[in-house]
Specification:
Layout lengths: L13 E4 L7 E16 L9 E6 L6 E11 L2 E12 L4 E2 L9 E8 L2 E9 L1 H4 L25 E9 L6 E8 L13 E10 L2 E11 L2 E2 L2 E2 L4 E13 L2 E12 L7 E11 L4 E12 L7 E10 L4 E11 L21 E11 L1
Antiparallel strand pairs: 1-2, 2-3, 2-4, 2-21, 4-5, 5-6, 5-7, 7-8, 8-9, 9-10, 10-11, 11-12, 12-15, 13-14, 15-16, 16-17, 17-18, 18-19, 19-20, 20-21
Subunit structure: Homotrimer.
Pfam families: Porin_4
Subcellular location: Cell outer membrane
């Protein structure tokens, strides 16, 4: 089963303690190395297939540093730096940003956590555990749940503590911070999560303004997204369902509604199986594509796993859709079949 510890301090394997405050501060090195072989059909207009190494199939390959200093009274100063890497060729995931995944500093307190810098969007934070594929390369990201990127720069984010099963997040990004174009690239989002025993549900609203690059200014255009999702644990199985409405005139994704459902089953302590079905009903004549995805995971240890994906995209009259959300070469209007076999290791 995919371990939620990937997003937490539990990934730590190396902790460097301050000599002057051994118990009060720490810096932890962590990472995820994920690489596999992918076979993908219809990757160009000639309907050719490709076979090759693909990095970050279940989780983005990355390494990072996370730090905490105890300030007393339940308060701590925190920071996080995280860089995505392409294991297939050793390159940075982003050519323009070294710490492209996370780069923030903040305060953790009994009243919640406030952070500033580059951070995950709330739609990512509060959907990753409501997606049977856990935001893999074949997942809700393929359908465009989160357009462009899961991170946002120049952001302020607040995460509340959990009270009576409820927790929430709020975020605002100052966007491009362009003089005379202060709305360009701005982002705001709100999310609420509720958990009771084996059931949990969440709602998220977010909006993004267009960018500014001389002479094009789309900052008056807006992308609006509302999503609701739920999951229910039944024994060693978990059932998932969700809904996304996309609206506005920015068109980061087609205007319309997305629906998904799926399940995860822990067959044995070492074997996990996932299945997901996604449907996008557009309102702009861009079709109604469907995604069908299966995944199997075999845990060699607590940190190392083998995995296999099988996916099929039925474009159903759609355009600009792909099975692998990182596939930028596909014409986007052809059905696709994909298979991935790989290994991941966390430290």
């Amino acid at each position: 089963m995919k371990s939620p510890s990937y997003f937490g301090i539990a990934l730590a394997s190396l902790t460097l303690m301050s000599t002057s405050a051994m118990a009060q501060s720490s810096v932890t090195l962590y990472g995820m190395m994920d690489l596999g072989v992918q076979y993908l059909t219809h990757t160009n207009a000639n309907r050719d297939s490709t076979v090759g190494l693909q990095s970050g199939n279940t989780y983005p390959s990355n390494w990072g540093l996370i730090g905490r200093e105890d300030l007393g009274g339940g308060y701590s100063a925190i920071f996080r730096l995280e860089n995505g890497v392409n294991l297939a060729n050793g390159a940075q995931q982003s050519p323009t940003s070294f710490f492209n995944r996370n780069a923030y500093v903040g305060i953790d307190s009994p009243f919640g956590t406030l952070t500033l810098g580059r951070q995950y969007k709330i739609m990512f934070d509060m959907t990753v555990y409501y997606d049977p594929m856990f935001m893999a390369q074949y997942s809700l990201l393929s359908a465009g749940l989160i357009p462009q990127t899961s991170g946002v720069a120049n952001a302020v984010k607040y995460k509340s503590p959990t009270v009576a099963g409820f927790s929430g997040e709020a975020a605002y990004s100052f966007g491009q911070q362009q003089p005379g174009h202060m709305a360009a690239g701005t982002y705001m989002a709100l999310g609420l999560d509720y958990q009771i025993r084996s059931f949990s549900t969440r709602v998220v609203y977010e909006q993004t303004r267009g960018s500014f690059a001389t002479p094009v200014d789309t900052s008056s255009q807006i992308d609006k997204r509302f999503s609701a999702a739920a999951k229910l644990r039944v024994g060693t199985a978990t059932l998932f369902a969700g809904f996304l409405n996309v609206n506005g005139d920015l068109h980061l994704s087609p205007v319309g509604n997305m629906y998904w459902g799926g399940a995860f089953y822990q067959a044995t302590p070492t074997i996990g199986l996932s299945a997901s079905v996604e449907h996008y009903q557009t309102r702009q004549g861009l079709g109604n594509p469907n995604w069908f995805i299966l995944e199997g995971t075999y845990n060699l240890s607590k940190r190392t796993s083998l995995y296999a994906f099988a996916g099929y995209l039925d474009v159903n009259g759609g355009q600009h859709f792909t099975l692998n959300y990182l596939d930028s070469t596909s014409p986007g209007n052809l059905n696709q079949t994909g298979v991935i076999l790989g290994i991941r290791h966390q430290f």
